[in-house]
């Protein structure tokens, strides 16, 4: 019996040693100052042209979403990540809610709808001139959310009196009674810090979801296409910018420079002519403006080549939408 008891005693000591090592390993993986770390997904939704991308860039502190005065600028769900030693916020900028007229817009709407299902905190963005009844079905879904909803009333710098703002806030409280209201101006950075502070308060305890040096989950090529597309949106009128898609064919990066070849796809030959312009003048203008912003983004010298191709009716062709990254 003595030998058996000694073996049992040895086994207990061995298990205690293993448990002690495991405990030390856990402490190393989660140091005391990291035990209270917070992290969460904050999704930004709302109708087109209310300033979602401007707000996203202000919250992140970097220009990760393109901004123009045109509606439907954002086509993808774009992630921007804010890191501090104590928390990580994963912001998502989504396309504006709309009634789709073609398959591309169906994909864009799916990004906005998906944002309601995987958020820890929801930012519903409106502005001081928007019709409250616009896209009422989507708004009713937001009203039923069980997660914290922060109602952002943007562009208050356009209002003349406080009573105007009070009336707008009152109407929105009827629409979203459970939401916390944050009147602000993303363009002027007014009241954005208070919104950010509240987001941090609401974050759930969690380890970070991405590396602490991450700014986004998108690859470098994605931001090149977005910068080029932004220049097209601001350089051309009417339907042409909405018929455009940009694909980076080549991205060769060295220590000091990047060589980029990108193709601009349009739906009709007439649009190709407009994009190129007389003697190539418009394409050269877009390329010059895009190159300057790409150089700022990557902090490197950039050599940019642009080409234009016709891809008929690509916005309604599922195979092309898959190729362009809108459908998985």
Structure description:
The termini are far apart. The strands form two sheets. Strands 2-3-1-4-5-6 form a six-stranded mixed beta sheet, sandwiched between helices. Strands 7-8-9 form a three-stranded mixed beta sheet. It folds into two domains: 165 residues, Rossmann fold, CATH 3.40.50; 104 residues, GMP Synthetase, Chain A, domain 3. It is an alpha/beta fold. The longest helix is centred in the first third of the chain and has 28 residues. Helix 7 crosses helix 9. The chain is 40% helix and 21% strand. The chain contains ten helices and nine strands.
Provide key terms for this protein.
328 residues; three-stranded mixed sheet; 10 helices; globular; disordered N terminus
Short description:
The chain folds into 2 domains: 38-202, Rossmann fold, CATH 3.40.50.300; 220-323, 2-Layer Sandwich (GMP Synthetase, Chain A, domain 3). The chain is 40% helix and 21% strand. The protein is built from 10 helices and 9 strands.
Helical residue percent band: 25-40%
Give the end-to-end Cα distance, rounded to a whole number of Å.
66 Å
Structural class: alpha/beta
Oligomerization category of the chains in this entry: single chain
Strand content: 15-25%
Number of strands: 9
CATH superfamily of the largest domain: P-loop containing nucleotide triphosphate hydrolases
> The CATH topology of the largest domain is what?
Rossmann fold
Radius of gyration: 25 Å
Can you list the strand order of the major beta sheet?
A: 2-3-1-4-5-6
The CATH class designation of the largest domain is Alpha Beta
Task: Return the average pLDDT rounded to an integer.
Answer: 80
The main β sheet shows up as:
6 strands, mixed
* SSE pattern: HEHEEHEHEHEHHEEHHEH
| Global morphology | globular
Number of domains: 2
Helix run count: 10
CATH architecture of the largest domain: 3-Layer(aba) Sandwich
Q: List the uncertain runs.
A: 1-9, 16-32, 66-72
